[in-house]
Amino acid sequence: MLGNIAGARQVFERWMSWEPDEGAWSAYIKLEKRYNEFDRARAIFERFTAVHPEPKNWIKWARFEEENGTCGLVREVFGLAIETLGDDFMDERLFIAYARYETKLKEHERARAIYKYALDRLPRSKSAVLHKAYTTFEKQYGDQEGVEDVILSKRRVQYEEQVKENPKNYDAWFDYIRLEEASGNVERVRDVYERAIAQIPPSQEKRHWRRYIYLWIFYALWEEMENHDFGRARQIYQECLKLIPHKKFTFAKSDSSFEFVRCRTLFEKQIEWNPSQTQAWIKFAELERGLDDLERARAIYELGISQPSLDMPELLWKAYIDFEEYEGEYDRTRSLYERLLEKTDHVKVWINYARFEINIPENEDDEDEEKPVSEEAKSRARKIFERAHKVMKEKDLKEDRVALLNAWKSFEQTHGTPTDITNIEKQMPRKVKKRRKLEEDRYEEYMDYVFPADDESTANLSKLLQKAYQWKQEQGNIS
């Protein structure tokens, strides 16, 4: 209003020294942009991303450079973002934005390299949208080989996660090896075989070794038949014989066709012998899923969660829910959450249920694009938070209630309005110190939560009782 830009800048600088929220930094940047002070705005962005290094803020900086800078500066920002965030804080949105920028410049090989770099480093649970974006990219700008490479990359990440979670999952190793053999990359195939045979069974029982031995056999056969490296094949057989306990193994067992019927039989016997073993159910279902038999996988999960004495039922439920969500069966996923909530009121289940609702794409065409969360999705998530809060209030689950309110507040800060945020903040409890009696002359101090809504209800009840007492006295005086 006064045109005192230097004065405004001084105020902003004092404000920035307190490292305020993102809105304050954005306002400062807008000031400099209005007066075409792009170098100053650039310097503010550098400080802004140091204080708030979330991926969305790096993307804002890159878009600023796209509008006001050069392609070199845009690439420099994205490169700095990837370096700063590192493997632990990588986000698929950053790579999608970077790749799409290169695509706009018709730098298709650069874009492809960015997608592949990200897919090799991000776990499958954090890269679903990235996979779909890459698939769309290859369909538009790639050839048949490129599309097949996308599919291979997606399955490669899936198998990497499986063997990382359970290195002794030999069925997952077999699936991974078959994938790499189909790709035709000799070094990749050899690397997976070497990693697989390094996973020696934990005991010397024959049943543990039966599946493991086939890894060695197929490795040797592959070197002999595909690579014609007879010396290496012979070396593999010799190393295998050294490992086997008591020299019980003979190569007469090695038929060249791998039958998954045997795997199924092994799993069936395992769960028949010990139906409480959660990991066995998960591995069995994953085997069927790897064979693209989704109905069999689903039936195994259903049978597994019906067992009365699972050692870790929460893991099996999570695996089943993740399976349905990954397959895009959102109604089935929702039904599973509802069934699980009939068995437990754990706060994490409620929070994950709400998060699931806001992550559902509105339609299949939008799955590969980053779209704003719809009001309908926000409404569904809020209803779940409200249901959870009511249950925890009724059951007096104070710690869980606090955790839920914190998650709800975080949700509103991302997706809600200032009014929504204020409404949740009004429900946040305060900590108070209380005393409780242990024995006749002993007391203990402890911390408790007092919720504003509960205080209000108690106050209203006290007023009601007071009025009832006054009415009773008045009736007695009249008589």
UniProtKB/TrEMBL annotation:
Entry keyword Iron-sulfur: no
Domain Pre-mRNA-splicing factor Syf1/CRNKL1-like C-terminal HAT-repeats: 74-159, 166-304
Name under which the protein is recorded: Pre-mRNA-splicing factor clf1
Biological source species: Coccidioides immitis RMSCC 3703
Keywords: mRNA processing, mRNA splicing, Nucleus, Repeat, Spliceosome
Described purpose of this protein according to its UniProt entry: Involved in pre-mRNA splicing and cell cycle progression. Required for the spliceosome assembly and initiation of the DNA replication.
Domain of life per record: Eukaryota
Subcellular location: Nucleus
GO process annotations (BP): spliceosomal complex assembly
SMART domains recorded: HAT
Main location (coarse class): nucleus
GO annotations of cellular component type: post-mRNA release spliceosomal complex; precatalytic spliceosome; Prp19 complex; U2-type catalytic step 2 spliceosome
Record flagged with keyword Lipid biosynthesis: no
PANTHER family to which the protein is assigned, alphabetical: CROOKED NECK-LIKE PROTEIN 1 (PTHR11246:SF3), PRE-MRNA SPLICING FACTOR (PTHR11246)
UniProt similarity note: Belongs to the crooked-neck family.
Binding partners and assembly: Associated with the spliceosome.
